[in-house]
Amino acid sequence: MQPYGTTPQAPASRRSRRATTVATLTLALALLGTGGTLAPAAQAVAAPAAQAASAGPYDRGPDPTVSLIEASRGPFAISETTVSSLRVTGFGGGTIYYPTSTAEGTFGGIAIAPGYTASRSTMAWLASRLASHGFVVFNIDTLTRSDQPASRGRQLLAALDYLTQESSVANRVDASRLGVAGHSMGGGGTLAAADSRPQLQAAIPLTPWHTTKNWSGVRVPTLVIGAENDVIASVGAHAKPFYNSIPASSEKAYLELNNAGHTAPNVSNTTIAKYSVSWMKRFIDNDTRYEQFLCPAPRVDLNISEYQDTCPHS
C-alpha cells in the first residue's frame, strides 16, 4: 500500500512522457525569460501536446470547467425510457437515460447496479447526471434484491449487452466504449464485471463490498470511491484492498469521501458526480480535456479525506 499522500511509481512509458513534458516546459520558460518568443523548434515540440488535449473523435459537449462538472446537470438535455423486467433476461430491467441530441453521433454506454436490498431508485440521480454529460446510461434493477456481487457483475454485463444490441436506443450507443458502476454489492459487482470483461473502458465501484479482496486481474481503468466512516464496507477491509490489488498499469484511482458513510452514493453528491463524470469522460470517451480534474491529483479537503492515483494517465 502506498503511504498516504504519495503516488505509486508510474510505468516507464509514463515517466518518459512526463520527462519530455518537463523538458519542453523548461525550454519554453527559459526562452520567454529572456524576453524572446519560442523558437520554431520549441513550438514544434510543444504543439502536439496542445493538439492532443484540444479535440478527439469522441469528445462530446463543450470544454469542461469546474462549474460545469459540479452543476446538478450537464450540457445535454436527456430523456428516459423504462425497460420492463419481463422483456429482458439476465437482469431485472431498469431505466435508460440518454441524450436527446443526435448531432454528436453515438455516445458511450454505462450500466449501473444498486446495492444489497436496494432498487435502481437509489442510483437514479447519478445515472441521469452522467447521461446529461453525454452518455447513454442504463440504471438497472437486479433479479432479486439479495443478489450477491458476482451475480450483480454478470447482470451489469447482461444489461450492457441488451443496451447495445436490443434496446430502443441501441443505435445511439457505441458498443466499443462501455463502462460500469455500482454501489455496495453493486460496487463489488462492478469489480467482477471489469475482471471478466477487460474490453470495458471504465469502472467505478462506489463504497464497494465483496468477499474477494484481490483484483489483480482487472485491466479496466478503475476509480474506487470509499467512505471514511463506512461501517458496512469499511475502507480498510474493502475499498483500499480492492484499490491496492489492481495493477497500476491498468490505471486506477482511490477517492475517499471525508466524514461519509456507506450510503453516501445513494443521494446526490457533488464530489461523487464530479469525479465520476471526469473518469468516465476521460476513459470511455478518451476525452483528455477532463484529465485536468484527475491529474494532478485532487487535494485532501472538506470533501476528500484521501486520494491516490496513477497519474499521469496513458
Automatic annotation (TrEMBL):
Per its record, the protein catalyses:
a butanoate ester + H2O = an aliphatic alcohol + butanoate + H(+); cutin + H2O = cutin monomers; (ethylene terephthalate)(n) + H2O = (ethylene terephthalate)(n-1) + 4-[(2-hydroxyethoxy)carbonyl]benzoate + H(+)
Any one GO molecular-function label of the UniProt entry = hydrolase activity
Q: Where is the PET hydrolase/cutinase-like domain?
A: 53-312
Q: What is its EC number?
A: 3.1.1.101, 3.1.1.74
Q: Name one Pfam family in it.
A: PETase
Annotated family:
Belongs to the AB hydrolase superfamily.
Protein name according to UniProt: Poly(ethylene terephthalate) hydrolase
The species this protein was found in: Streptosporangium vulgare
Q: What is the lineage of its organism?
A: Bacteria, Bacillati, Actinomycetota, Actinomycetes, Streptosporangiales
